[in-house]
Amino acid sequence: MKQFFVGFSKWGLYLLDPFFEKKGRYIVSTLHEAIAQGLDETSRVYMYPAKEDMEIKEYCKKKRIALYFVEDGFIRSLSLGSSFFKPASIVMDARGIYFDPTRESDLEYILNYNTFNDALLERAKNLIGLLLKNRISKYNHLADKQISVPEKNIKLVIGQVDNDMSIRKGGYGFDSMKLLQTVKENATKEDFILYKPHPDVVSGIREGSVDEKKLYTLCDLIVTDASLDSCFDVANEVHTITSLSGMEALLRKKKVFTYGMPFYAGWGLTEDLQRCDRRKRTLSMEELVAAAYIVYPKYVSLKTGKSATPEEVLEEIRTLRKYYFESSFFRFKVNMLGKSAVMIRKIRDII
Hints:
With 351 residues, this protein is α/β, with parallel strands linked by helices. Among the domains are: 3-105, no CATH class; 153-279, Rossmann fold (3-Layer(aba) Sandwich). It has helices at 10-15, 31-36, 54-63, 106-113, 118-134, 165-170, 176-185, 199-203, 212-218, 228-234, 244-251, 285-295, 310-326, 328-350; strands spanning 3-6, 25-28, 44-47, 66-72, 89-93, 153-158, 191-196, 221-222, 237-240, 255-258, 271-272, 298-299. Helix 3 (54-63) links the parallel strand 3 and strand 4. The radius of gyration is 20 Å and the shape is globular.
């Protein structure tokens, strides 16, 4: 079977190597190129959502060729994907993609129609326990630190990369600056606004929209060097556009306000500014986790590259994270990889 990858660089495909068959891979950029390489009804097409090719998509629909949109899963790695860290999980979505509320995705379909049996819900409950016990998020390279805040209502505002596809598709006109301004406008004297910018923006790999001169007029404290869990520890509520951090806050039983339409909104667990009429059910936290963390993604071991369970991946990331904070040499190597990613992108932009 031939596999066609649309919108992927050679480096991007290298990072995803364990998830796909070794033979018959073709990276293509046009339909003509794909047909010349033998695209037919027996092929599979994997498309990067940020570079969706409508001509190839329509051809696949017409010829009934299997097409999947590929993105990172929700338990990913020790550090950032933009710093060239291989993912431990991905999703392959035949309908759409989880961050695009303009169309149904496989995840939305599962959340709407799947029957969650007792065994799956018990597994989801145990997985939540592991995530909380080990303080695991999508990325896990920031240290747990005690954040000093006053005895007030702490509003945690989550910054994002404002040209990210999740903002472009599901942000409904919000970016990080507009989110901060909105939270500030609705704040009272009893509120304390804590802002956590996206780690890609902090590292310099991606650009954000927040004007630093205005930043401290909109929030009371900025946290860049502490883990997400450190922020959750002090937060009473979490405000986000579409960030996965909102889902992670729900796991920690925080009140979550969404201003866009992330995949976890619209199911009765969040306070939502927007609506999605396709989302028809009220779900439990265990049902949401069962769908998003167990049924929807595919996992591989970071050690062996072989198929793995989310529980096994969590243990690997827990071990890596512990080693990262205990070994200065390992931490140096990881941090240098991130700095190299910034330099490579700057050189690419100059050229």
